[in-house]
Amino acid sequence: MATFWQKCQHFIKKYPLIVLLVIVVGAATGVTTALANYQMITVRASVLNVRQGPGLSYNVMAQVQSGQKYTILSSRNDWYQIRLDNNRIGWVASWLVDNTEVSQATNKVGIVTSEEANIRQTAATDAGIVATAKAGEKVTILYQAGGWSQVLVNDSVGWMRNDTLRTTNETATTVQSNGGDASQVSQASIKTVTTKQTAYLRNATDDNAAIVASLSANTTLTYLDTSGQWYHVQTKDGKKGYVPSWLVSLSANDQPAKTAPTKLSEATIMLDPGHGGSDSGAIANDGKSYEKTYTLATAKLVAAQLRAAGAKVIMTRTSDSFVDLSPRAKLSNADGVDAYISFHFDSSPSPNQASGFTAYYYSTSKDIRLAKTLSASLGNVLPLTNKGVEFGNFQVLRDNTQPSILLELGYINNDKDFSDIRSTAYQQKIANGVTQGLLNYFQ
């Protein structure tokens, strides 16, 4: 009887092509299996940040959950490049795949007890030092094992010996910023969150949830509570929804975001009488009547009428004093006013060459509605020609983060216009028009 190997040799000689095909297919299958095993990771951490590049300085673009599997495309500097389910590509830290990633809802705060404690690259006393922490400094504890704690402090992630730390019962909410730094705020003290970049306010804690509003960078929102890795927040105009925690920074000091006024009596208005002091502004044809005089007189009448309507009024000047342009806009920004109105009277190259009034805006998104509303209301009460709304590249508007306009309320070197400008009756009509315009604007 022929042995097994004799039969195999006979089969190979008789059917060499079939044998070769089996070998090739088998080899390919083995390679495919090996590659598949090598190129897949399983998320074991409860939450894992996916970043736009291989490092902590890159933005968080998504978060993945425990048990999910992803394909590894490449590796660089101890980071894995992976492909997400929606075909987006990002990076995850290799040293966090097999232990615990930052969990923003559950991390504890540790307080450094040593006079100076080293933060090392790995959990070993001979590992490289990435940073140091002083006694009393707070750190976020990410993971603990074998007498060591993995911590986040300032812009460094590393390891500290447990005997250099005291773990507290305080829960840290840690938010990575665009630059990779981290701010640590006790959840109990959070009052506001501010968007680090453009973001969507959604009606649920899901990237695919319906969009409630689009938020620009540096938008301040009132913090309501935390839901997993999302914050429940409210906008100035009362819209509620959720924003991803990794796209915002937190504040324990700011007051909750002010609700946008729905009527004039709830609003804060800044009135800016143009020029003043050594800056006379434009000069009338008589050579002795100055723009600064009439902007202040007009603004005072407007202020009185707005206060009578219940509005809070702030003036950039209340006397014949010089105020530079930059502080005017800064004052508006610092006070977070609901509307900023700068009062001026125009001048043409030649006397009696031009007539009428104009409302200027700088930003179409925040200023133009205010400009159009006041232009219309002034047009209803002023005897001069309404020249409409125009773009104006003025510093007090350009540097202003609040809704702001500049009004040129007649030509001071036009004799007919000036006869109105200098009269209290005309100035009162301006006050009437501005007040009515703001009543319309805030309703």
UniProtKB/TrEMBL annotation:
GO terms for biological process: cell wall organization; peptidoglycan catabolic process. SMART domains: Ami_3, SH3b. GO terms for cellular component: outer membrane-bounded periplasmic space. Residues 36-100, 107-169, 188-251 form the SH3b domain. Keywords: Cell wall biogenesis/degradation, Hydrolase. It comes from the Bacteria. One of its GO terms (molecular function) is N-acetylmuramoyl-L-alanine amidase activity. It holds the Pfam family SH3_3. The keyword Cell membrane does not apply. This is SH3b domain-containing protein. The lineage of its organism: Bacteria, Bacillati, Bacillota, Bacilli, Lactobacillales.
